[in-house]
Design brief:
about 220 residues; 4-stranded parallel β-sheet; about 10% strand; 9 helices; two-stranded antiparallel sheet; globular; alpha/beta; single chain; Uracil-DNA_glycosylase-like_sf; Uracil-DNA glycosylase; cytoplasm; glycosidase
Length: about 220
Amino acid sequence: MNVDIHKSWKPYLEPEFEKPYFKDLVNFVKTEYKTTKCFPPGNQIFNAFNQCHFNDVKVVIIGQDPYHDDNQANGLCFSVNDGIKHPPSLINIFKEIEIDLGIPYPESGNLLRWANQGVLLLNATLTVRAHQAGSHQKKGWELFTDEVIKTISNNKNQVVFLLWGGYAKQKSKLINPKKHHILSSGHPSPLSANRGYWFGNRHFSKTNFLLEQAFLPQILW
């Protein structure tokens, strides 16, 4: 695994690359990718950082794991490649945007268009074995991505953090609420959404309102 990360992040994250846990993580990931099928493709592991540069971060969405079926994961949480069937959580995200903003349901589930506008689509774990959800958890990725969240909290202002579901909500302790905005709701997965914990959260219009208040460009969701 090459730590192929955009130069804008390096002043903040390079100290992590030298820590023993990260070196162990790199060795683990390299071995996994050599010996078994893993996602996303090796050159897209750090895609979230390469498509959304540090200076541009306005919104952070936190996922847990990459998608683990063929051709889905592209290094951006909740996102799938063009032409790939939308997973259930992504369907519910797009449905909420439809309800909230009146935007037609999109054909592509590729959220690259969000990343390029300053939305960091961050999975807590950046890799996974094919067809084995959670298989790369607790190997060091969470230490790294927690540091990413703290770095954004400490070095930026007025970022909107969208915490969906119990796992993401635990990350609120890493964020300074005096400097940033935290919007929490249930997860967009069918289990949570069908119980009434997702639909109607209006996180997309609320995010744009907060960005407008901070004199920042709104996101074209």
